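Try this one yourself first.
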């Protein structure tokens, strides 16, 4: 099932949260091969419809309104290492807004509402995930939410999946990023090396272990961390507690960590898997 439309109901749901709180918006985008024919745009691709018509039109509106948004990431997605079968993204876009109020003012502007037809015509699927910069008071937010029907924690035979295996054909020296979306367990599963902890504590053990021990070997560092408060566009059951971008100095260094069966997959990955109930792992590189 595809999820594309930004509805009035979605916007109204945001009004219940602090209007002055800074927010970031994660956009995961899957483009149509060609823009929907209703707009009579000929052979225009979904990619060009999105960037040349929708994207190009947003900046003047934001400037007129003084929303002050900034671009954090505009990355091409190469593969979804951990994802459901229908998730096959083309781009990752992350925008920062000085306040929730500023975002709502922009998306309710009549000129912006007119632009949405180009977004809808360009996209075959999308996610829009609202995040805050500071740890929420009730973190983790989703301990009482219904469990996901199709959880993704690990993937047996990871590199036999053709969507993932293509990583071996890409530039091994290219710096690369991994967007991690995680939903934390209330308590850790036994046997992962983080027994009798909360999911938040167990994941912290994983995060600090990886970023300290693999900082030099894999060139890994967390370059962005935020806390999702709502999936505005996407399945309701996709509830995330943390969003992180792990940066690797090169793709070959990233793969050396993932395929390290003597340490990473024995001493670190089990801590992650014991601490979460759902997750996504999306490979990106900075570019147009």
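Now uncover the answer:
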């Amino acid at each position: 099932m595809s999820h594309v439309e930004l509805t009035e109901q979605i916007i109204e749901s945001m009004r219940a949260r602090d209007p002055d709180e800074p927010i970031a918006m994660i956009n995961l985008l899957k483009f149509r091969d060609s823009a929907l024919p209703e707009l009579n745009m000929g052979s225009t691709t979904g990619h060009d419809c999105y960037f040349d018509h929708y994207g190009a039109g947003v900046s003047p509106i934001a400037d007129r309104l003084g929303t002050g948004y900034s671009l954090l990431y505009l990355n091409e997605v190469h593969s979804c290492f951990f994802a459901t079968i229908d998730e096959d993204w083309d781009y990752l876009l992350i925008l920062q807004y000085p306040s929730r109020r500023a975002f709502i003012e922009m998306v309710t502007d009549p000129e912006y509402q007119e632009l949405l037809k180009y977004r809808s015509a360009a996209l075959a699927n999308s996610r829009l995930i609202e995040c805050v910069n500071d740890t929420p008071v009730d973190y983790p937010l989703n301990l009482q939410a219904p469990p996901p029907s199709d959880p993704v924690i690990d993937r047996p035979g990871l590199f036999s999946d053709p969507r993932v295996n293509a990583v071996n054909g890409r530039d091994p020296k290219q710096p690369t990023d991994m967007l991690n979306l995680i939903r934390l367990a209330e308590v850790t599963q036994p046997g992962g090396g983080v027994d009798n902890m909360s999911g938040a504590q167990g994941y912290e053990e994983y995060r600090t272990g990886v970023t300290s021990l693999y900082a030099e070997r894999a060139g890994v560092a967390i370059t962005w961390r935020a806390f999702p408060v709502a999936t505005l566009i996407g399945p309701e059951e996709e509830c995330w507690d943390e969003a992180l971008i792990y940066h690797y100095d090169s793709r070959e260094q990233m793969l050396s960590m993932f395929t390290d069966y003597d340490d990473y997959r024995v001493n670190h990955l089990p801590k992650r898997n014991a601490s979460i109930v759902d997750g996504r792992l999306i490979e990106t590189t900075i570019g147009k």
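Discussion: The CA atoms of residues 11 and 111 lie 16 Å apart. The first strand starts at residue 23 and ends at 31.
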